[in-house]
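User: Quick sanity check before I run a bigger batch. Here is a single chain. Can you write out its predicted 3D structure?
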Amino acid sequence: MTPRVRREAFATSVRRGTPLVWATGAGDDLRALLGWGERFRATASGPERFTALADAFRAFAAQSAGSTDDPHDLVAFATLTFSPNSDAASTLVVPQVLGRWSRGVLTVPDGAEVPDPTAPAEFEELDLLPGDLTRERYRRAVATAVARIEAGEFAKVVLARDLEAAGPDPVDVPAVLTRLQQANPDSFTFHVDGLVGASPELLVARRGPTVISRALAGSAPVTGDPQQDDQLAERLAHSAKDLEEHRYAAHSVADRLATLADVMVSSPSVWRLTRIMHLATDISGTLRPDHAHRSALDVAAALHPSAAVCGTPTEAAASVLAELEGFDRGRYAGPVGWLDATGDGEFALALRCGQLSPDGRSVRLYAGGGIVADSVPSAELAETAQKFLPMYEALSPVARP
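Assistant: Done. Predicted structure follows.
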């Protein structure tokens, strides 16, 4: 079928019925997948949630064979919980209509119906309320984690805290998505089943047999002052504490990916984002023939949870998270992304994000940091505050898109 095109701004496209969204880049480099309606939905929970969703999509794709000209056009968006014990559901959605946005053009299949753009809603100031883990409780949790690291229980644990942003009216999600994309062009802006955010951390991208990942851990603020930021970057690059934290994260991804693929691992470097800089290690590889059938979601299952969002050793770190955090992470820090019927796709870790409430009037925000033996509670609290900024600013009424 001949595709239909509409020349319009990205901000206009995301106002068409609040679609499923996966976007990255800026200007001519901005690319996005947008989905409207639901052709198929699957949910899963527990330790087999990855397998259950992957199998459900394979079965649906097999039933749909021949209904689309190109298996790359049969795309599912997915968001999975961090923990197998979460009360939240892991969800996979195949949209009724898939759109591709690039270079000022929205392309949809011929004959596809997409909603008309909506007008921006009045954007009220949201009240920012303490979550289940208050600032003081977070400091105490960090101190407890450091003591247990020193006692030899584990080497690293990633502790998160939460906030609730609430207002009288439903959140204008298209406005939030537009702001997130504009302010964080190097991240992956997403909206899947009420989870919205802009994550910088690519868990896995699969293109045929090629797989890539980027591990992030260790951070410093970006101030906007070039000289000061250069100094902060130099300090981060040589920080023993941050290099230790990063090493655990990079090794956990590289070692697991090596069970499926022949991998190459870069040296860590400093990657500057809008508000924060991270130590980053790029990991790439080629799936070995006996694993070439694995989809992006299958590979994500093999890599999750990495030390970047859990800790190390994995089981010891995971067991202490519920105790020290005291709340259900839901989809925060779980994989979020898309895959097509060929198995290609991209999954990020759901960071710099929030989960909308069922009535849409509040958003639960999350941010965390890696705790190692040299961690200082006040510094870790400040790091989480820096990581809340992308969502907090996107929810602010100060600057409208």
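The chain has a mean pLDDT of 94.

User: Great, the batch can go ahead then.
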